[in-house]
Amino acid sequence: MSQFNTVRxxxxxxxxxxxxxxxxxxxxxxxxLDWHGTGxxxxxxxxxxxxxxSIAEDAESRLRALMEIPxxxxxxxxxxxxxxxxxxxxxxxSTATAVADYVITGQWGQKAYAEASKYLDRINxxxxxxxxxxxxxxxxxxxxxxxxxxxxxxxxxxNGVAFETVPDTGEVPLVADASSIILSEPIDVTRFGAxxxxxxxxxxxxxxxxxxxxxxxxxxxxxxxxxxxDWYEMAKSxxxxxxxxxxxxxxxxxxxxxxxxxxxxxxxxxxxxRKAEKLYAAIDDSTLYANPIAVxxxxxxxxxxxxxxxxxxxxxxxxxxxxxGMVYLNGHRSVGGVRASIYNAMPEAGVDVLVSFMKxxxxxxx
Length: 366
Hints:
This protein is of the alpha/beta class.
């Protein structure tokens, strides 16, 4: 029996919804019934009332500061997840004469392409990996001469693959799904025409989606685009064309405040780098664990690996880890294996516990 069989603290390695900072949860708990003396919970407030408007404006201001978002970019707080944006990107940025280019480096990139294909007649796979273990160099991409945009997935949560650098697509707008990497390391927003991210990894609870889009791209929406997916209409209405996910928006603001208190994105990026280095070192120094991803493209947010002793030993690893308080380490159902998602809210201590457990488990089974 493992020495790690007494649960004291639960470390949540879920890929999403992921862990939230404990201090954010405590503050939300304190304010749950009465936000700032209003006698109301944020969940009960009108989204058009001055109380919630102040919450929304504060959240956007903090996000702009954290990511250094220029004034010529709109920040939208929407619904429908990143999955909804797979269609919205095509609806808002394609034109009748242009081709949409997609780079597929994992399952979410494939899903983005599949959804856009339902909407577009002219779509090109500029690059696709099989298996999804690396990001092909830009000089190998087959980009279209008249592309309306180029779409990438900066970090693949299922496959554990990340772009080492932001690709240069010249005058063609680069569009990125940043769901699992946003706020974990500095991102130069000016390199992109648009970024979008589901909240449930580094921003807040599920139900909220952040879109950051350059002003000059807001007039490209295709006719007959549903208003709920129309970035121009949402920007014009302050993301309140319909009732937004108010409570998730509020929690996101608390997470932004927490991140500022940690020293901002550069400070959390240093912690994330240390966490990832410790975990990959434990894998690389082992004969029991293996990671298939090209080293330059290893994700710092979603560390995937297999237990090489076979499926029964892998099941034992996951069961004992759960008993020891490390939950949701199962790999995605489509690929199996082990996946440790170490988003911003995962403390370094949690990674230390996992690494110690991995070494102790190998000593008994290696």
